[in-house]
Design goal:
Blueprint: E1 19-21, E2 32-37, E3 40-45, E4 54-57, H1 58-68, E5 69-70, E6 73-74
Antiparallel strand pairs: 1-2, 2-3, 3-4, 5-6
Length: 76
């Protein structure tokens, strides 16, 4: 088993990514979308698709979500 972490994806490689929108968005296109990239995840604002998404390791995304959630309710 290799201990070398996988290469971080580049933004230009995300054109085929499968983006998921939060079920809390209500369909008003005012939400955060996440794409699962294996060891990484990409996060973007559904209102600003022309901006580059943020690419985080799965552990960093987990830490971020822990900071902005209180149980099952978003507070951010």
């Amino acid at each position: 088993m290799s201990t070398i972490p996988p290469r971080r994806p580049r933004t230009e490689e995300l054109h085929n990514a499968h983006w998921r929108r939060s079920s809390y968005s209500g369909g008003a296109n005012d939400c955060v979308e996440i794409a699962d990239l294996g060891a990484y995840a990409a996060v973007r604002d559904s209102k600003a698709l022309d901006l580059s998404p943020v690419i985080l390791s799965r552990s960093a995304l987990g830490d971020l979500l822990d900071q902005y959630t209180d149980g099952d309710t978003c507070i951010g």
